[in-house]
Amino acid sequence: MNKGHRLTKESDELSMYPKHLLPLIKNPKYFGRMNDPIASAFIKGPCGDEMEFYLLIENNIIKEVKFYSEGCPATILYGTATAEIAFRKSIDEVLSISPKQIAEILEGVPEDHSHCSILAVSTLHRAIASYLLKK
Fold first, then answer.
1. Domain tally for the chain?
2. Among 118, 122, 112, 116, residue whose Cα is nearest residue 49
3. Mean pLDDT, each 10-residue run in order, the chain (135 residues)
4. Which positions ≥6 away from 118 have C-beta within 8 Å?
């Protein structure tokens, strides 16, 4: 595939999203990997997108959170929103986050990508489970 075709495909894909969400897709907050996390998790979703979450936890509070994905724009959006909600919250508060809650925050994401909210929340919960199992 030539570069020009890829850019056209990317522009077409982004046109499905509300304009106010485009900055979150192009420059997502909390995006990246962490060198020495206390907890981490990786899940590959049924659509083939992959999600990683990395956490630093002190006194049962999420002190730092990062996520990584090379997935579609919806996966990036849901990862960003999930990380935002988890940041500086207690483990109990984070475990109460639901995919529906994340989907409601990001109103306007195409409905056929709602499974990406499940991927993001499940990966975050799995990272917390890995932390709790180490205690």
1. 1
2. 116
3. 41 83 92 97 94 98 97 94 98 97 90 92 98 90
4. 45, 99
Residue 7 backbone dihedrals phi, psi, to 5 degrees = -65, -40
104 falls within a domain = yes
Measured from the Cβ of residue 7, the count of other Cβ atoms closer than 10 Å reads 10
Q: Is 93 inside any structural domain?
A: yes
Q: Is residue 18 part of a domain?
A: no
For 73, the token pair is: 């724009």
Note whether 73 and 13 are within 8 A (CB).
yes
Domain residues for 67? 25-134
C-alpha separations of 77 from 20, 96, 116, 129 in Å: 12, 19, 9, 23
Q: How far apart are CA 43 and CA 40, in angstroms?
A: 10
Q: Is residue 73 part of a domain?
A: yes
Tens of pLDDT, residue by residue over 100-122, are: 999 999 988 988 898 999 999 99
Tokens 């959006």 belong to 77
